[in-house]
Here is the input.
Amino acid sequence: QVNKIILASTSPRRKELLESTGIDFIIDASSIEEVMDETLPLSLRLQKLATDKAYPIHQKYPHDIVIGADTIVYLDDEIIGKARDEAHAREILMKLNHRKHSVYSAVAIYFGEELVTFVEKTDVYFKDITNMIDDYLASKEWMGKAGAYGIQGRADCFVDHVDGDKNNVIGLPLSKVMEVLKQHISFENLTL
Here is the structure.
């Protein structure tokens, strides 16, 4: 009996990343209100949020594998969320300009009753992007993205280099996810 794998996320980027592995999965996401528990240290806060996202789906499929995730951009001890509007996006990008910031993705995976959580960190080094910001904002590609940019799109040219898993910046630390899946399930029946 091969368990179903369920991605508890509506993120098109997470879907694309997981599809790239060739494993079969379905998408079923709950719309929880994303609330950070400010009393917890950052990594635990993120793991709790990823677990909160996965939990309702785990209740729906208690014997299957459910993957929840949350990604944030972190700079100067502050979480940089999604931009509210274009002016806010410009402000965020100017903060990231010519500097290093960190991207954290927390992943929570239910294997039936067992829960595995981890956080992956990737450092992203931006070039001087002052002259590129206007065109980028006009493209509207910043909308709905943490840190107001998507590394997999036009903002790739902002990046000098990345220290860590680039997929993590896109929204899912794929190699770590696959490693954890392989530790818990047999992939013989899955086409990889």
